[in-house]
From TrEMBL:
Organism of provenance: Roseicitreum antarcticum
Source organism, top-level taxon: Bacteria
The protein's name: Helix-turn-helix domain-containing protein
Length: 82
């Protein structure tokens, strides 16, 4: 029977590898942190997670939110022409 050795404590887990701070996201989007805070209050922006006072965004969730914001333009119709 083979036993599995417990994980060593020498290497810390990188629990926040896929998460970015509000400041980092604001910088990547080219907007103010206050804008992200307003969007959060109005439930307009990307979903976030709070850990204490720190606000974090999962990169994949932000990417999905950005993709959902994409809008298609309706076909233009000509007015006054027959």
């Amino acid at each position: 029977m083979q036993t599995i050795a417990p994980a060593t404590q020498d290497q810390p887990l990188n629990l926040l590898a896929d998460w970015i701070s509000r400041e980092q996201l604001a910088g990547e989007l080219g907007i103010a942190c206050d804008t992200l805070a307003r969007w959060e209050a109005r439930q307009l922006g990307p979903p976030c997670t709070r850990i204490g006072r720190k606000v974090l965004y999962r990169r994949t969730t932000v990417e999905n939110w950005i993709n959902a914001q994409e809008q298609t333009r309706p076909a233009r119709t000509r007015r006054g022409r027959k």
